[in-house]
Amino acid sequence: MNAINTPVPKTDLAVTHVLAQLLERLDHSAVPVGPEQYRSVVMHLVDEFRDVEPGTRLGELLDAYPAAAEVYENLNYQHAGLCRSALDSSLAAELGAREAIARAMRRPDTDSAAS
Q1: Which residue of 25, 48, 50, 51 pairs with 16 in a disulfide if CB–CB is 3.0 to 4.6 A?
Q2: pLDDT, tens only, 16-26
Q3: What is the rounded distance in angstroms from the CA atom of residue 48 to the CA atom of residue 96?
Q4: What phi, psi does 3 have (nearest 5°)?
Q5: Are 46 and 19 in contact (CB under 8 A)?
Q6: Rounded to the nearest 5°, which phi and psi values hold at 107?
């Protein structure tokens, strides 16, 4: 008989919280941060996100730490897109694109006018 071991999601977010807080500090540091230090923190946070249980507590943590939320969103992009991105900036980008397309469609066709 083969037993399948399914990992139990972590509910204790203490380590995740510390890493998210550290990443936020590195992001806002007035002193230059070495890329290896930054990468190390991000990779540890990625490992934590793989095991953590989604839910309200994780959502609150991500709301409090935007840098960690961006990492989480990028990890889960294939499933949910940019679901944690600010709606205002997404909407502004869409409206800007629509306006640019409308302006391009109103321009006279310079190639056919030259023929």
Answers
A1: 48
A2: 999 999 999 99
A3: 37
A4: -90, 135
A5: no
A6: -65, 140
Amino acid present at 111? D
- Lookup result for tokens 């203490």: 14
* Residue corresponding to tokens 């960690």: 68
- Distance CA(53)–CA(109), nearest Å, equals 55
Nearest to 38 by CA among 52, 18, 49, 23: 23
Q: Point out which residues pair with 10 in neighbouring strands.
A: 52
Could you tell me which residues come within 8 angstroms of residue 84 by beta carbon, excluding any fewer than 6 positions away?
A: 62, 69, 70, 72, 73
Whether this prediction's pTM lies above 0.90 is answered by no
Over residues 59-78, the mean pLDDT reads 87
